[in-house]
Write a structure and sequence with these properties.
It is a single chain. By secondary structure, the chain is mainly alpha-helical. The protein has one domain. The protein has three helices and no strands. It is elongated and about 45 Å long. It starts with a helix and ends with a helix.
Length: about 80
């Protein structure tokens, strides 16, 4: 069951990263996928990946917030 969770998390990351130019919401979905992958690697005991994926999630959240503010200003 844990492996299925990991596959889903990484798939969400991959697909949202691949298509993130289409919508700011895909950047947020990427952040969620990164958080899920961080959780998965933590449960598996692979702590360096846990930290890296957690940082990716934070970076993606920052990118989402910046893009959201930028789009609000152009409306």
């Amino acid at each position: 069951m844990l492996t299925i969770f990991g596959v889903i998390a990484v798939s969400i990351m991959f697909l949202s990263y691949w298509t993130e130019e289409r919508s700011k919401w895909l950047v947020l979905i990427f952040a969620i996928g990164s958080g899920m992958t961080s959780l998965y690697s933590g449960l598996e005991g692979v702590y360096p990946i846990t930290v890296i994926e957690g940082l990716w999630a934070l970076v993606a959240l920052q990118r989402f917030a910046q893009r959201h503010r930028r789009e609000k200003l152009t409306q």
